[in-house]
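Project standup — Tuesday

K.O.: blocked on the structure for the chain from last sprint. Re-posting the sequence here as requested.
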Amino acid sequence: MWSTFFIQDEDGRPAGSAGSGTAGGVAGMSGFGGGRKGVGAKRRARATASSGTGGMSENQEGKIKLAFFLAIVGVILSVLGVGTEFWVELSPSKSFYGNQTCLTAHFGLWKCCSRTLWVADIDPERESCGPADLPGESNCSYFKFFTTGESKMLFQKTMVKNLNIAAAMLSMFSLFLMVMGSVCVTMALSKGVQFFLKPASFCFVLSGILVFLSLIVFHQSVLSFLASDHTVPLHHELSWSVSSMGCAGAILILGGALFLLLALPYSPWQRCLPHQDSNS
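H.V.: unblocked you, prediction finished:
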């Protein structure tokens, strides 16, 4: 408790020495208030530090979430490409069968679909039968070489089952790495530990590379399929599922590179382009 003594003169006014004592008391009170403010600021700083994510700033956390969103887009495109059967479209000449209908086919990693189209519905400037999205009678079936080992025959041509199985396994392993990378990023955000960004970067980059390898192996299987028999000339073109996988591979590699940059203990821009003082 603070006490201030006032010495008054005959007129009731405070004397000079008492005025200096009063000023000292006021100064003491201000010093005490400043000390309390300093303690309160330190307590608030400690509370802010304790409520943070393990020393990870909000700016750093926002960058990680943005890179994670980019990686999730790549994962969605990969799942879309793996689960659909529009990897390649095969079509003979629309006049090959010599009637009012023609046959086209499209397949992916797991399933093959053939469709009978009306020649009148096809663009007159198009020489081959198709495209496969035109209305017609469709028949789809899963490849049996994953279960019984039986090869698939289409347009009197035989698919190379080893290459198809290799492409499918590469795509599935890439999906597994995407899941592992997502788990690592989730742990980094929840625990506030940037160490988990390094394995996440490895998983996403490797999954993107495996996606491209899967596309290369699949394209090689298509070329081997076309070269197996030349009785029926076919026109082939890669469809939108391959485009989805290609975009996914590029996005995954980019997301993995961003996670690696965010895991570094220093900023590459500050290391490569150090800030120069204006006075120097």
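K.O.: great, moving the ticket to review. The beta strands are 88-91, 101-107, 111-118, 137-142, 153-154, 157-158, 235-238. The radius of gyration is 36 Å.
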